[in-house]
Write a structure and sequence with these properties.
This protein has 252 residues and is of the alpha/beta class. It is built from nine helices and ten strands. The strands form two sheets. It has a six-stranded mixed β-sheet with strand order 6-7-8-3-9-10, sandwiched between helices. The radius of gyration is 19 Å and the shape is globular. Bound molecules: adenosine-5'-triphosphate. The site of adenosine-5'-triphosphate has 11 residues, from strand 2 and helix 1. One of its GO terms (molecular function) is ATP binding.
Length: 252
């Protein structure tokens, strides 16, 4: 479903990604690990066209992704969550999730500005879709609550709900369990495993929490200083001396 070839990104003198390549099969869940500054978020930003690549190629469902404009990404079925939450604090949980479904809307600028009946019908539909996702993630009780002031664990689930509202086929999760308690991490992992099945999702997840990665991912790719240093089944990568030195060594 996703093929990354020789992807290179430079920021001035820093090479954030240096010829990185890997593939993700449909319905697989791949963990992207590596120490701070390894290039994981930069990779996500390339896939969602927030960063320009200096070299290499990305093919998604057979199409060259790097030629697509950033606003086309959600419409192609790629959803993402952000490390530091991409939510609007003053908007309600439901409104935040509706923003995630917005690209399904078909009303043009003028129709929307004049609030013609079609726009109202469309809003009602987006609201229904958002409510279905909120119910699925046990968030119905906070649907009308502003995002600001909710517990961090709840906000992480709202962030997931917002990404799912876009009906993605490929879901990119950036540190989804960072900052969660043990119990919350386990619950998040259970939810994600179930959603993968229900929605036939393909998932790439950046995460430092090794227990979560080992328990949810089929394969793991490890980056260090912008280079891929290991790839394989989670147990194998965890035992890889290069990974232990680069990542687990520094984390211990
Ligand atoms: N917009 C930017 N401008 C300049 N340098 C950047 C930019 N974004 C990232 N970098 C640099 O690129 C390298 C890779 O950063 P990136 O955020 O992708 O790492 P990461 O693996 O996601 O780290 P973390 O685990 O801390 O989130 C780092 O050296 C970082 O300082």
């Amino acid at each position: 479903m996703l093929e990354v070839h020789e992807l290179t990104v430079r920021f001035g003198g820093i090479t954030a990604l240096d010829g990185v390549g890997f593939t993700v099969a449909r319905c697989a869940m791949v963990g992207l690990i590596g120490p701070n500054g390894a290039g994981k978020t930069t990779l996500f930003n390339c896939l969602t066209r927030r960063h320009r690549a200096d070299g290499g190629e990305v093919r998604y469902e057979g199409r060259g992704l790097l030629a697509e404009p950033p606003h086309a990404i959600a419409g192609l079925g790629i959803g993402r969550t952000f490390q530091n939450l991409g939510l609007f604090p003053r908007m309600s949980v439901r409104e935040n999730v509706m923003v995630g479904a917005h690209h399904h809307g078909r009303a043009g600028f003028l129709t929307a500005a004049l609030r013609l009946p079609r726009v109202r019908r469309e809003e009602a539909r987006l609201r229904e879709e958002a409510d279905a996702v909120l119910a699925r993630l046990d968030l119905a009780a906070v649907a009308d609550h502003p995002a600001a002031g909710l517990p961090f664990g709840t906000l992480k689930r709202v962030e997931l709900a917002r990404a799912l509202a876009g009906r993605p086929r490929l879901l990119l999760l950036d540190e989804p369990v960072n900052g969660l308690s043990h119990g919350e991490v386990d619950a998040f992992a259970d939810t994600l495993r179930a959603l993968r099945e229900e929605l036939s999702l393909t998932v790439v997840v950046v995460e430092h929490h090794m227990g979560f990665v080992m328990g949810t991912c089929d394969r793991v790719v490890c980056l260090d200083f912008g280079r891929k240093i290991a790839e394989g089944p989670p147990e194998e990568v965890q035992r890889d001396p290069a990974v232990i030195e680069a990542y687990l060594g520094t984390a211990a």
